[in-house]
Amino acid sequence: MGKPKAEPRLAEDEAMAFGRLIRSSPRKLNLLAQAIRGKSATAALAELSFSPRRVAGDVKKVLQSAIANAENNHQMDVDSLYVAEAFVGKSLVMKRFRARARGRVGRLQKPWSNLTVIVRERAEMD
User: What domains are defined for the chain?
Assistant: First the structure.
């Protein structure tokens, strides 16, 4: 007796990478996730390489990890991969304070995010 086998979360032609505790707010990180969503993997890597945003390097690492997972764990062709999904979730928020005038306090919130990137193999057009 035991638990039944869990259904696979991904299809046969998908691979995933999960970036945990990225030091950026979810709103800012989601702008980059929207920018790469639906693009081919090489185009998304090129866009992230030349993006002026600070967090683009972390997003690029997660995308490269998803591509490596597809190649090594699922034997997919790297040239036919595209970013099927890229979504952002909230993680912890560090709460700090800064002393202000007249004995008051200014509250600082330092948010962290999680990023999930799913790459899929594009169907061959024969």
Answer: 14-121 (3.90.470.10)
